Amino acid sequence: MSRSVPHRDPELNAIKEDLRALADPRKARVLQRFFKTGPGEYGQGDLFIGVTVPKSRQVAKKHAGAGMDEVKELLYSKIHEERLVALLILVDRYRRDPEGVARFYLDNLGQVNNWDLVDLTAPKILGPFLEKRGRSLLYRLARSKVLWERRVAILTTYHYIHARDFADALKISEILLRDKHDLMHKAVGWMLREIGKRDIRAEEAFLQKHYKKMPRTMLRYAIEKFPERTRRAYLEGTA
User: Fold this and answer.
1) Class of domain 1-110 as given by CATH
2) Are 1-110 and 121-239 the same fold in CATH?
3) pLDDT digits (tens, 9 = 90+) for 176-235
4) What is the dihedral of CA 138, 140, 146, 148, to 10 degrees?
């Protein structure tokens, strides 16, 4: 979807000014490293100004009434925190306009392009939106060549896991078992661990079938809360 012509709306300017007032150059340098923004890294080119997520939430809440044109302009910013505020506004707005927000989110999914942006939005927007509309989209995203789309697929299932509906999470985890990216190993392992918190038998049934071929990081995340003896057995291949 092509980018719109920039808007010079007072609300847009106010959001940017509020973020810059909270910016911390030292924290920005830490975040640049933490989110792997260097050449060849997954967040290459992402720019941070050093605003924490709680403070970004405050800005989003203050400007919850921003127009969709302004939200889109923020979403296409090179500055990570501006994209984050745009997405947090969308999460809040979803309750009032689920169809409009979800369609906007999907139309601009390419801008949901770092792991925190995915994790804070996919379960809260796509999760409820697809709940009764069919979830075939998640399986297409799980097979995408785009890292963030694959992460959207598995993180969206967090919404269903909360309701003890594990089927999609388990099926998508199977699709992603051979994913090459460490961020996906962590995401799948995390969702398996969340299943285990609610039904350990469901998680262990999956692990017994797949654990010997799972990436090590995925397995470690999945069994993080297991008793030490059980965890060691999985890591040693004797479970």
Assistant:
1) mainly alpha
2) yes
3) 999 999 999 999 999 999 999 999 999 999 999 999 999 999 999 999 999 999 999 999
4) 0
**Pick from 231, 136, 128: nearest CA to 189:** 231
The identity of residue 162, as a single letter, is H
pLDDT, tens only, 133-190 = 999 999 999 999 999 999 999 999 999 999 999 999 999 999 999 999 999 999 999 9
What is the rounded CA–CA span in Å between residue 107 and residue 116? Answer: 19
Cβ-based burial of 210 (10 A; exposed 0-12, middle 13-18, buried ≥19): middle
**Closest among 152, 38, 5, 19 to 84, alpha carbons compared:** 19
The CA-atom distances, in angstroms, between 41 and each of 26, 33, 45, 68 are 21, 10, 9, 31
Tell me the CA distances in angstroms from 222 to 34, 68, 119, one per residue in order: 23, 39, 17
- Residue for token pair 């601009």: 108
Q: Residue 214: which residues within 8 A CB-CB, separation 6 or more? A: 177, 207, 222
Return the domain boundaries, the chain.
1-110, 121-239
Written as six digits, the tokens of 183 are: 């961020």
Are the beta carbons of 173 and 166 closer than 8 angstroms? Answer: no
How is domain 121-239 classified at the architecture level of CATH? Alpha Horseshoe (1.25)
Residue from 31, 12, 36 nearest 183 by CA? 36
pTM, full prediction: 0.93
